Amino acid sequence: MKKHKLSLYQLLSLLCFCLIIAAWCILTFGGFVSDLFLPSPLEVVRKIGQMYREGTLWANCYESTKRVVVGWIWSVIVALPVGMLMANSKKFAAFIQPIIEFARYLPVVALVPLTLLYLGIGESQKYTIIFLGTFFQLVLMVCDTVSSVDQNLINAARTLGAGRWQIYREVIFPASLPGLMDDFRLTIGWAWTYLVVAEMVAASNGLGYMILRSQRYLATDTIFAGLILIGLIGLITDFLFRVLTRIVAPWHERLSD
Amino acid sequence: MSDIKLQAIDLTKKFYGTAGEVVAIENVNLTVKESEFVMIVGPSGCGKTTLINLIGGLEEQTSGEILLDGQPVKGPGPERGMVFQGYSLFPWLTVQKNIEFGLKMKGISKSERAEQAKKYIELVGLNGFENALPKQLSGGMKQRVAIARTLANEPEILLMDEPFGALDAQTRVVMQELLADISQKTRTTILFITHDIDEAVLLGERVYVMSRRPGTIRDVLDVNLPEIRTHDCLVLPEFLEAKKKIMDMLWQESQDAALSR
Ligand SMILES: Nc1ncnc2c1ncn2[C@@H]1O[C@H](COP(=O)(O)OP(=O)(O)O)[C@@H](O)[C@H]1O
Ligand SMILES: [Mg+2]
Fold first, then answer.
1. What CATH number is given for A55-149+178-256 in this structure?
2. Across A26-30, A111-115, A189-193, B120-124, which has the greatest mean pLDDT?
3. For residue B15, which atom of ligand 1 is closest to its CA?
4. Could you report the per-residue pLDDT of B197-237, keeping only the tens digit for each?
5. Can you give the residue ranges of every domain in chain A?
């Protein structure tokens, strides 16, 4: 019964993709739109094949993935303790929350000149952009996830003799793990949207760079190839996170399961 | 005098919220003797949970004193084990690991923990479910785990807040008999809170009757039923007599409350 439902779910997801590709085929092969605006799927696939032969496919994917992952990991490393502390200390939350809420609304694009000024044109500037794009959101999400741990579980642990640190380690952390995995999964998705910003200036490789450069030559097939690659990497990341969540928190009941 | 386990003296708790001051309980006095099974019965909202949370150390009283073995209690501690209506099991831990939790907090070695846990798994009849996760268990089974988890800590007193309130009638009787049996076997001192008069009489050696808000102890009653409490007690004349007395007290109580309004 359950299995049947799951395959129906997958079937519908697949159907959506098929419909979009079908519409794409009709629009392009039917000659309804010019190649300049929308290249045909065949052209995009050909483009990706060409990139593969030239060796730029893996190089660009690798560079971009590295930038996203490193920037995002930094953001996780800092956001995790700060968010947990905010959730558990009203004083610390009062101290730090206003600045985080403020920084959250700063447009990351507008920070690019400053990062260039402070950090130069190296990789660290790219990591910083990804970090800035994800950190402030992630802190608030971590804080929220950690604060929503069932107080009854904490009370039970206290009456069973758990001390302050034991409660963190043995209750709050495992209880928030599924929620944190979700937060991580969402923020790494956002990190990909900041990739183009990170590769906007002073980059010589990467998928974001490739897309920006193609814009100048109106190479729409390359733009679409880049978009599809980013989308695919995103889907794979999402999938990996779901698998990982199931591994680290097999006890967790998910509504869609 | 020395056999008094727990004592509450003039216990008062006020909450200060947006709606102003709420006096949850006022001047509560009660004693629980060593190895005694004491019940507190009262209508919903009369401050039962507040009272047991104060004794458990999860809340702090506004005034008054709580003494365990003559020492004032402060904050929660493993010597006052609690069992809640909502089970509060750790969903990521197996039955066995849940039961070992308190022992792990104490730093007891793995093998010793397993040995101790085994004893209590047997006591509550969970053999064969050691490696199950809480989500795989029924409500009654979950509450067995919660009871074993608290008992494994070998508390001085077991505090129970309507532990069977969420169970269906049949399971509830099974659990009541199990608890009566555990109380006989382990001689653990138990303070048990309920709004169910049958439950209070069936389990209690002594029953405190609480009045409506602000909650206070209105009466106390000794129950003279056989030592071994089973569902057969539910039809004994002594049972019905005690039940009637408590019903009268609560009825009188609600009359007084209505008149004073
Ligand atoms: N944290 C709180 N803040 C304000 N009022 C509370 C709080 N906890 C309980 N109360 C109030 O105290 C009274 C007693 O509640 P409670 O102890 O839960 O009763 P019972 O367990 O007997 O149903 C209720 O009127 C409730 O609204
Ligand atoms: Mg209650």
1. 1.10.3720.10
2. B120-124
3. 4
4. 999 999 999 999 998 878 899 999 999 998 889 999 999 99
5. 55-149+178-256
pTM of the model: 0.87
Contacts of A174 in chain B (CB under 8 A): 90, 92
A168 close contact with B: CB closer than 8 A: no
B45 CB less than 6 Å from ligand 1? yes
Which chain A residues are within 8 Å of B81, Cβ to Cβ?
159-160
Q: Which residue has the tokens 């030592």?
A: B227
Residue nearest to atom 11 of ligand 1 (CA): B24
Instruction: Tell me the count of A-B CB pairs closer than 8 A.
Output: 70
pLDDT score, position A256: 46
Which one of the ligands is nearest to B53 CA? 1
pLDDT at residue number B217: 94
Residue with tokens 């608290």: B150
Q: Other C-beta atoms within 10 Å of B259: how many? A: 7
B133–chain A Cβ distance below 8 A for any pair = yes
